[in-house]
Write a structure and sequence with these properties.
mainly beta; elongated; 4 strands; Rubrerythrin, domain 2; 57 residues
Length: 57
């Protein structure tokens, strides 16, 4: 199976002292070898922010 589940986390929340926003998404690791980066809504900051893939356990 080529698709894997990844967790993406907000990059701006910690700088502002707010709780982080996390989403779960999937990616095709054969076609997309670099880390996932998407614009998603952060409910704590009440705006769209950049979310980047973090290490999974």
């Amino acid at each position: 199976m080529a698709r894997e589940h990844v967790i993406i986390e907000c990059t701006e929340a910690r700088k502002e002292g707010k709780p982080v926003s996390r989403y779960m998404t999937s990616r095709n690791k054969k076609l997309q070898t670099e880390r996932v980066e998407k614009k998603k809504f952060n409910k704590h900051l009440k705006r769209h922010t950049i979310h980047r893939e973090i290490k999974s356990k």
